[in-house]
Amino acid sequence: MTTYIFSDEALMMLTNAYLISVVLLIAASGIGLAVIETIEKTGER
């Protein structure tokens, strides 16, 4: 028994994966920048 993925479903899955990865990348970079800023602030004291 083989299951086929139609092209529109595959395109939706790829689009969702791309959008999720973009959101996660932006969130991770924001967290990273906040951590770096915190480290720099504590180093100045």
UniProtKB/TrEMBL annotation:
Q: Which organism is it from?
A: Nostoc flagelliforme FACHB-838
What does the UniProt keyword field contain? Membrane, Transmembrane, Transmembrane helix
TM spans, by residue?
17-36
Tell me the protein's name: Recombinase RecR
